[in-house]
């Protein structure tokens, strides 16, 4: 392996310090024994214990989890279907337009997405609560899923589906028995991505959440306005851990499937 | 059994299959042969149901099958790329089609076992496609397409991935399977030797058209035109002008082919007008090479050895005639190489009989 030059070492260190020092401080202070956030008074897990007895936080955590699970699952189904049609479907009028449009919410400012959803929910008279957050999260995470899944579908060998049809599958069976198992890793990492996106969303959730259904990020945000407490630090650390696990799992799943796909392709190339 | 009726297939403005009509019979081993891009795969895909013809109709057992989706056809295809399902084991790959028919479990198991035995894959049943060799994969693909006992089996360049030895073994295996099962086989290949070996009839295609459809020996011995003669095997083509021989029988022609050379003689079933341009096609193995002018030979030309291609069992001599034309002659190497009679630059005579060559109009 090449050794890093002096310059590279410094830039790498600076870059990562910039990224991770704030989080690191937060994690460290979550283990502070003192009630004062800025004064270190020895190591303690006291705040984690208190967290477990804080009803408001636990409620918010439960809401967040429910929203994340439901919205990411719905988004995965819808996103996969959209990706399949856009990559596989026969050319239909405006297909290019549709493929472009599915990516638009990715670059749309969240405030606008949140506001438009809010207007919609008010317009159709839907009371804000868990349901509205789920719907809102589904809308924006669906595009991420469809991006992940369609990039896998593009490299998917069409003749596998044809072989399935040839052997007597209906198109739906071919999808279920052949396409889906093969693209499963992409679908799973799409789900994990949607899940973590939903977990840490603040902006869209605050537009669409009702008084009885606050999510953790909203709770933290409003708590911090009254002052940072060590308890918040502990809660944030837990969230960092969950998100980190989610992201790492997603990247591992897609990495593994990539490696396997490459291996398969090499085998196939060798067979030619 | 299969009937193509004036089938045309266009991709945009490009015509891949051009007004083609063809009958393929029950229990036939039919080979489609032609250069790359002539439309062989397109023909197969139309039979499999993955493309529909732009014009014309395709019948299978008397029924028009245009518009019938692939899963409703009693046709199975072995894909050029095998298209094995990577997430399923060899066993499950073979069972895939049987399960779709909703057959009882015991039936499926018996049939898969039979297929594994036929393709000698018993040992690999539990492996995944990426854990077996290319040749084994090819046999899995074959077993999978055979498992449903289709009325018609389509093989798109099934043996392209194999080395020569395995390829020959598999060719015989295929013929064996075809005899045993009575399935109609249509095979695509651009290896003419393979087509000749396995097929009962061969269709030579070019640019979406059929050039000739006949049994392998007829394709080889009496090609209908220069394209077929040239495409199948090695051949010498001599261009000249035909004149019906005055004294001889009425299907003998005299061919004037070069200034100052003795005219050649050949028989032909097709008629040529006096002075019509013609092409005499002679296979190298029908040309005899000798040191002296052979007694009484009607077609004999003189030249010198330009090149010798030693192929083990046979040698091909490239002989340059005085007119500059190069003619290939083949002899079997019945003697050891040290006793070979001719070497480079040797003056030799080439001769062939009146019926040795085929006279073609174009
Ligand atoms: N989907 C398509 N769209 C446009 N052109 C096509 C399509 N499929 C095939 N063609 C064209 O039709 C012609 C015939 O293709 P086909 O695949 O049948 O060739 P082939 O005889 O199987 O060749 P090879 O021996 O290389 O496999 C080619 O010129 C090809 O470019
Ligand atoms: Mg082809």
From TrEMBL, chain A:
Q: Which residues form the ABC transmembrane type-1 domain?
A: 61-253
**Keyword presence, Phosphoprotein:** no
Subcellular location as annotated: Cell membrane
Q: Which PROSITE patterns match?
A: ABC_TM1
Q: How does it sit in the membrane?
A: Multi-pass membrane protein
Keyword vocabulary terms for this entry: Cell membrane, Membrane, Transmembrane, Transmembrane helix, Transport
Q: Does the keyword Transmembrane helix apply?
A: yes
Q: Quick one: where is this thing mainly located?
A: membrane
Instruction: Name the Gene Ontology biological process terms.
Output: transmembrane transport
Q: Which residues cross the membrane?
A: 12-31, 67-87, 99-124, 130-154, 174-194, 232-253
Name of this protein:
ABC transporter permease subunit
């Amino acid at each position: 392996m090449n050794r890093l030059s002096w310059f590279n070492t410094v830039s790498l260190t600076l870059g990562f310090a910039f990224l991770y020092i704030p989080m690191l401080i937060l994690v460290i202070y979550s283990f502070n024994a003192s009630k004062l956030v800025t004064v270190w008074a020895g190591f303690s897990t006291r705040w984690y214990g208190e967290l477990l007895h804080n009803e408001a936080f636990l409620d918010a955590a439960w809401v967040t989890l429910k929203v994340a699970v439901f919205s990411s699952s719905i988004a995965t189904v819808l996103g996969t279907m959209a990706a399949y049609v856009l990559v596989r479907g026969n050319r239909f009028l405006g297909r290019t337009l549709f493929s472009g449009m599915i990516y638009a919410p990715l670059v749309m400012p969240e405030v606008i997405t949140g506001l438009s959803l809010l207007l919609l929910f008010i317009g159709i008279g839907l009371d804000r609560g868990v349901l509205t957050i789920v719907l809102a999260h589904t809308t924006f995470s669906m595009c991420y899923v469809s991006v992940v899944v369609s990039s896998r579908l593009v490299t998917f060998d069409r003749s596998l589906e044809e072989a399935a049809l040839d052997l007597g599958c209906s198109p739906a069976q071919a999808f279920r028995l052949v396409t889906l198992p093969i693209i499963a890793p992409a679908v799973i990492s799409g789900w994990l991505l949607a899940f973590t996106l939903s977990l840490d969303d603040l902006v869209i959730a605050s537009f669409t959440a009702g008084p009885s259904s606050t999510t953790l990020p909203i709770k933290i945000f409003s708590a911090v306005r009254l002052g940072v407490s060590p308890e918040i630090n502990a809660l944030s650390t837990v969230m960092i851990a969950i998100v980190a696990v989610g992201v790492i799992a997603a990247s591992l799943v897609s990495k593994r499937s990539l490696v396997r796909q490459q291996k398969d392709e090499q085998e196939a190339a060798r067979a030619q | 059994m299969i009937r193509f009726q004036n089938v045309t297939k266009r991709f945009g403005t490009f015509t891949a299959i051009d007004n083609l009509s063809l009958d393929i019979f029950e229990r036939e081993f039919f080979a489609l042969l032609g250069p790359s891009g002539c439309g062989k795969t397109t023909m197969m895909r139309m039979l499999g149901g993955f493309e529909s013809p732009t014009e014309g109709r395709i019948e299978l057992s008397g029924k028009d099958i245009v518009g019938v989706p692939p899963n409703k056809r009693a046709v199975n295809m072995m894909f050029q790329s095998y298209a094995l399902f990577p997430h399923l084991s060899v066993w499950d790959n073979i069972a895939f089609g049987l399960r779709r028919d909703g057959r009882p479990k015991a039936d499926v198991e018996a049939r898969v076992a039979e297929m594994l035995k036929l393709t000698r894959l018993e040992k690999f049943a539990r492996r995944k496609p990426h854990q077996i060799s290319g040749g084994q994969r090819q046999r899995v693909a074959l077993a999978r397409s055979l498992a449903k006992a289709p009325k018609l089996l389509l093989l798109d360049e099934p043996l392209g991935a194999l080395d020569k030895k395995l390829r020959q073994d598999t060719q015989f295996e295929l013929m064996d399977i075809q005899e045993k099962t009575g399935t109609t086989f249509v095979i695509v290949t651009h290896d003419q030797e393979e087509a000749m070996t396995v097929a009962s009839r061969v269709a030579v295609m070019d640019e979406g058209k059929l050039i000739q459809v006949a049994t392998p020996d007829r394709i080889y011995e009496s090609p209908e035109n220069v394209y077929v003669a040239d495409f199948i095997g090695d051949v010498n083509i001599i261009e000249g002008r035909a004149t019906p021989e005055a004294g001889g029988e009425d299907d003998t022609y005299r061919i004037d082919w070069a200034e100052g050379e003795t005219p050649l003689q050949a028989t032909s079933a097709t008629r040529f007008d006096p002075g019509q341009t013609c092409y005499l096609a002679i296979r190298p193995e029908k040309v005899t090479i000798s040191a002296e002018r052979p007694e009484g030979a009607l077609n004999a030309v003189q030249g010198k050895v330009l090149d010798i291609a030693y192929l083990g069992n046979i040698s091909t001599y490239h002989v340059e005639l005085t007119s500059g034309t190069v003619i290939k002659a083949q002899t079997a190497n019945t003697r050891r190489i040290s006793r070979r009679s001719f070497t480079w630059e040797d003056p030799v005579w080439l001769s062939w009989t009146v019926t040795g060559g085929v006279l073609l109009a174009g």
